[in-house]
């Protein structure tokens, strides 16, 4: 068997998430359908660097899969890209060693959340940005986000459906920046994120930015490890997986 690694992008609006499930169309399902066609009808199991929830987008999701024989990487990429639906793009593809695993090889992820603050919602960004025009304490959001940087138990920012027991994660970047006059970007990098963690952190920061909570609320949530203290889960459509970087790439 020959192992391939690919970088894909997708508009998550019409997907029930990345991973195959019973309640809707998924990115994995669409890709595996095309891979089976390219593999003479034989099923091909695809693995991703992680799941994205229903409605969440990706600019650089990483996947891997095995085929019985070596193929020209660019021809295979082109075949995948042209036969998948328009809301999925296969950006790059390469042969990798048999021990590469998109999920289990050590890596970091970067997520970006877009917030539109204009008085009226913009119809051209509504599928990819959460409209919230009531930010009055931008600097407080910036300061509060920095309190998330470090290694902590993020139980307080985890949704109730989380299945993992170890909720300790390391966040290396938590920036809140303006992009133009009517957009705010929340950028988070770390060695892994829990179920809906990024959206729960954004929901908390937005409450702080709206002047409802003090900056110290973030520290209180981390100490108490109580989800009830955190803000609402920000809508999925504002979130995008921007980058997945493997440790061997960083150290190369």
Descriptors for this entry?
252 residues, globular, ten-stranded mixed sheet, 6 helices, 2 domains, single chain, Alpha-Beta Plaits, alpha+beta, 10 strands, 30% strand
Order of H and E elements: EHEEHEEEHEEEHHEH
Which structural class best describes the helix and strand composition? alpha+beta
The CATH homologous superfamily name of the largest domain equals Pseudouridine synthase I, catalytic domain, C-terminal subdomain
Cα(first) to Cα(last) distance is: 26 Å
Estimate what percentage of residues fall within beta strands: 25-35%
Residues in helices, as a percent range: 10-25%
Describe this entry's structure for a reader.
The chain is α+β, with helices and mostly antiparallel strands. It folds into 2 domains: 2-95, 2-Layer Sandwich (Alpha-Beta Plaits); 109-246, Alpha-Beta Plaits, CATH 3.30.70.660. Helices cover 23% and strands 30% of the residues. It is built from 6 helices and 10 strands; from the N terminus they run E-H-E-E-H-E-E-E-H-E-E-E-H-H-E-H. The protein has helices spanning 27-38, 73-83, 138-146, 197-209, 217-224, 247-250, and strands at residues 2-10, 46-48, 57-67, 88-96, 107-116, 130-131, 150-153, 168-178, 183-190, 239-246. Strands 1, 2, 3, 4, 5, 6, 7, 8, 9 and 10 form a 10-stranded mixed beta sheet that branches. Strand 8 (168-178) and strand 9 form a beta hairpin. The longest helix is centred in the C-terminal third of the chain and has 13 residues, at 197-209. The protein is globular. The mean pLDDT is 95. This is tRNA pseudouridine synthase A. Keywords: Isomerase, tRNA processing. Pfam families: PseudoU_synth_1.
């Amino acid at each position: 068997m020959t192992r391939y690694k690919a970088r894909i992008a997708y508009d998550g609006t019409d997907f029930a998430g990345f991973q195959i499930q019973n309640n809707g169309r998924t990115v994995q399902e669409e890709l595996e359908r095309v891979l089976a066609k390219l593999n003479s009808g034989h099923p091909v199991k695809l693995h991703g660097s992680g799941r994205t929830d229903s409605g969440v987008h990706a600019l650089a999701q990483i996947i891997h899969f095995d085929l019985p024989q070596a193929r020209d990487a660019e021809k295979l990429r082109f075949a995948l890209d042209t036969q998948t639906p328009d809301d999925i793009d296969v950006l790059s593809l390469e042969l990798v060693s048999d021990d590469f695993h998109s999920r289990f090889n050590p890596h970091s992820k970067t997520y970006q959340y877009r917030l539109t603050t204009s008085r009226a919602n913009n119809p051209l960004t509504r599928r990819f940005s959460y409209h919230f025009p009531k930010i009055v304490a931008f600097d407080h959001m910036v300061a509060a986000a920095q309190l998330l940087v470090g290694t902590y138990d993020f139980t307080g920012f985890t949704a109730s459906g989380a299945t993992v027991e170890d909720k300790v994660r390391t966040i290396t970047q938590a920036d809140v920046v303006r992009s133009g006059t009517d957009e705010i970007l929340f950028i988070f990098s770390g060695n892994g994120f829990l179920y809906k963690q990024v959206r729960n952190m954004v929901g908390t920061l937005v409450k702080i930015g709206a002047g409802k909570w003090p900056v110290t609320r973030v520290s209180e949530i981390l100490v108490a490890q109580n989800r009830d203290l955190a803000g609402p889960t920000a809508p999925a459509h504002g979130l995008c997986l921007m980058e997945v970087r493997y440790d061997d790439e960083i150290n190369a």
